[in-house]
Specification:
Rossmann fold, 8 helices, 7 strands, globular
Length: about 250
């Protein structure tokens, strides 16, 4: 099946984890993928994986917290392919851990800059181009913490709630312009970020937070993103899809 045949798609934060899985899945479904990341080595690795599997991709280094670099990313895409059909704004960070009353100001600024402002900057220029195309699809990566608290991570929680609100606003404004926008809220997913920061015992504790008693797989999130990016979800916009193994059901 080629759900995204000949579509042109940007994925930010595509150098690892969920972003890489989304980029690879887009390519498998026939899209030409623009892989973007702040880490050039990781981004080029994703491109290499896609090409080895027979897909088409190229890398653009960009800092998602910069409005200017988000614009350059879209410009590079249009220069290469002449259009932009799909964007998955995935880049994000966790930030420092502290009580709200003790939270580092610089840490707050950085998390908000990448996780919220960066998503807005991406959407700002993606929407501009999609209007020229006559339509498009945006999928913004939120989190379960776009609806529930993440104690000791106030900036992350605030940013992800903001991403959900941003997504709904875009859907309301652009529904009659053939542009859809949805958000995905992953729970705890097995990524290099968890491997680098948690030991085995902590990993089991995190997995136990889900009623399915396991961590999610990046492919499971990527499959949802592909669905929302394709015509199979053609009547879906402004929605916030949680994929958390049951974490938020209790």
């Amino acid at each position: 099946m080629s759900l995204l045949n000949n579509k042109v798609a940007i994925v930010t934060g595509a150098g690892s984890g969920i972003g890489r899985a989304v980029a690879e899945s887009y390519a498998r479904e026939g899209a030409k993928v623009i892989v973007s990341d702040i880490n050039e080595t990781h981004g080029e690795e994703t491109v290499s994986l896609i090409k080895k599997a027979g897909g088409e991709a190229f890398f653009v280094k960009a800092d998602s917290s910069s409005a200017e670099e988000n614009k350059k990313l879209v410009d590079a895409t249009v220069t290469k392919y002449g259009r932009l059909d799909i964007a998955c704004n995935n880049a994000g960070i966790g930030g420092p851990a502290a009580l709200t009353g003790e939270y580092d100001i610089a840490g707050w600024d950085k998390v908000i800059a990448i996780n919220l402002s960066g998503v807005f900057y991406g959407c700002r220029y993606q929407l501009e181009q999609m209007e020229k195309n006559g339509g498009g699809v945006i999928v913004n990566m939120a989190s379960i913490h776009g609806t529930v608290a993440a104690p000791m991570s106030v900036a992350y929680t605030a940013a992800k709630h903001g991403v959900v609100g941003l997504t709904k606003n875009i859907a309301a404004e652009y529904g009659q312009k053939n542009i859809r926008c949805n958000a995905v809220g992953p729970g705890y997913i097995h990524t290099p970020l968890l491997d680098d920061n948690l030991n085995e015992e902590q990993m089991k504790a995190v997995a136990a937070k889900a009623t399915m008693n396991r961590l999610g797989k990046v492919e499971e999130i990527a499959n949802l993103v592909v669905f929302l990016s394709s015509d199979q979800s053609s009547f879906t916009t402004g929605a916030y899809y949680i994929a958390d193994g049951g974490y938020t059901t209790i």
